[in-house]
Design goal:
This protein is an alpha/beta fold and 258 residues long. It has helices spanning 32-47, 69-74, 83-92, 109-112, 143-151, 153-162, 168-174, 183-198, 202-213, 217-235, 238-248; strands at residues 8-13, 16-21, 53-57, 98-102, 105-107, 119-123, 127-129, 166-167, 179-181. The N and C termini lie far apart (40 Å). Bound molecules: coenzyme A.
Length: 258
């Protein structure tokens, strides 16, 4: 059984399961234990016929700083059964609607997980970034496939090669975000949309989502597995070691030898 954690809160009410990042002091960076808790919560929501919608939310000032770098260094995901990959397969294959409410930084998987959400609402303080290259790594969560499809190649290259943050309005323009709202209203907007969806016939929601995604589902899983293998290998290589060591030591990385 997965270790219990208060860093992920799971609450189900009126057909809506809400999964909340609750590790604000560490900018909601995600540990192995948190991935396991989210994977378990998704599996439970998938299996529970009374659950119709899942909402992911963070804090008004931060959605998630992505992988917990120290935790990743200590226990890099070694196999496809690692909690991070279980979570990614769970969200990518989730058959019911998934909504995200995003305020503040959404780094790495904090952004790429949104590619697997059906509706995304962002506070006007949201800042999205996929700085994998800056960490000596490669994209994950099928972002190497889905980001170019969504934004077009050149904007995707800017986001994935430079890894610089882009704000909520730019995210809305490229189609990652449905609506930009004041940060204090973001979670409430997501919940209101969830309630609307929860009142609709579940079988029609599931079939509509399946039809929209079916053409790509096998490719998404295949790309995710290939990215995961590269990501796992690159985590142990000099560039990532230098990037992560620099982050822990609060200094600039030096990639002159990588
Ligand atoms: N892993 C582990 N700890 C993290 C973290 C991460 N990804 N992101 C932030 N933290 C920790 C910081 O080490 C710091 O801890 P401390 O108080 O013990 O020193 C605390 O969270 C606050 O972070 P800080 O950087 O001071 O906050 P900020 O508001 O100045 O910046 C971010 C917020 C998210 C922009 C910045 O923390 C950041 O860039 N984090 C790294 C993101 C990243 O590279 N993620 C990996 C993607 S694969």
């Amino acid at each position: 059984m997965t270790e219990a954690t208060q860093d992920i809160l799971v609450h189900t009410e009126a057909g809506v399961t809400t999964i909340t990042f609750n590790r604000v002091d560490k900018k909601n960076s995600i540990t192995t234990t948190m991935y396991a808790a989210m994977a378990d919560a998704l599996a439970a929501a998938q299996a529970d016929a009374s659950v119709r919608v899942v909402v992911f939310q963070g804090d008004v000032a931060v959605f998630s700083a992505g992988n917990d770098i120290g935790d990743f260094l200590q226990q890099p995901p070694a196999t496809q059964d690692a909690p991070v990959f279980r979570f990614l397969r769970g969200i990518a294959g989730f058959t019911k609607p998934v909504i995200a409410a995003v305020c503040g930084p959404a780094v790495g998987i904090g952004t790429t997980m949104l590619l697997h959400c059906d509706l995304v609402y962002a506070g006007d303080n949201a800042a999205f970034s996929m700085p994998f290259v800056n960490l000596g790594l490669c994209p994950e969560a099928a972002s190497s496939l889905l980001v170019p499809q969504m934004m077009g190649y050149h904007r995707a290259a800017e986001a994935l090669l430079l890894g610089e943050p882009f704000m909520a309005e730019a995210a809305q323009e490229v189609g990652l975000v449905n609506r930009v709202v004041p940060p204090t209203e973001c979670n409430a907007v997501a919940q209101a949309q969830a309630r609307k969806l929860a009142a609709k016939p579940l079988s029609a929601l599931i079939e509509t989502k399946r039809l929209m995604k079916q053409g790509q589902a096998p490719q998404v899983l295949a790309v995710m597995a290939e990215e995961g293998a590269s990501f796992g290998r690159m985590l142990r290589e000099p560039a990532a070691r230098e990037a992560f060591g620099a982050f822990m030591a609060k200094r600039k990385p030096d990639f002159s030898n990588c």
